[in-house]
Amino acid sequence: MSETLSQLTGTKSEIYQSLLPQIEALIGDEQDAVANMANISAALKEAFNFFWVGFYLVKNDELVLGPFQGPIACTRIQKGKGVCGTAWLNAEAIVVADVDAFPGHIACSSLSKSEIVIPLIKNNVVVGVLDVDSEHLNHFDQTDLEHLTNLCQWFSEKL
After folding, report:
1. Residue 104: Cβ-neighbour burial (10 angstroms; 0-12, 13-18, 19+)
2. HEC string of the chain?
3. Domain 12-158: CATH superfamily, name plus number
């Protein structure tokens, strides 16, 4: 596949349905996790114009910033802290309609208003998270949760 995305129009669900196979083809047999996370972040940012999209990886019992697209971000997050740390602790996805209402939210950028975090689980262990932020309140819904969860489950198998 070429390094361009095609047919990214329609409803949110239609865009995901078009995008996810393109991401799978883009990654193909590439084994480098950093390269793959970089392309996933770029593809999601390009398709949906999210404010921030990227990965945090578990290293030495903390989440460490990985490949991302968007403004600079927090470098390290403790387990159970903020949305990312809570998703890691509980090994479950979190959708936050208003980050200011989330107890202990870590504000890497005051422009972020809503967030979705999906854990990357390999062999029943959280090895990282996909974090997506929007500058709009209540931006993420069941469609995002379903499709991003499917993407993360698929991608976790490649890690």
Report:
1. exposed
2. CCCCCCCCCCCHHHHHHHHHHHHHHHHCCCCCHHHHHHHHHHHHHHHHCCCEEEEEEEECCEEEEEEEECCCCCCEEECCCHHHHHHHHHCCCEEECCHHHCCCCCCCCCCCCEEEEEEEEECCEEEEEEEEEECCCCCCCHHHHHHHHHHHHHHHHHC
3. GAF domain (3.30.450.40)
Please tell me whether the overall predicted TM-score, pTM, comes out greater than 0.70 for this model. Answer: yes
Please give the structure tokens belonging to residue 6. Answer: 């095609």
C-alpha 105/C-alpha 36 separation (Å) is 28
What is the residue extent of each domain of the chain? 12-158
Per-residue pLDDT of the chain (159 residues; tens, 9 = 90+): 456 677 678 899 999 999 999 999 999 889 999 999 999 999 999 999 999 999 999 999 999 999 999 999 999 999 999 999 999 999 999 999 999 999 888 878 888 999 999 999 999 999 999 999 999 999 999 999 999 999 999 999 998
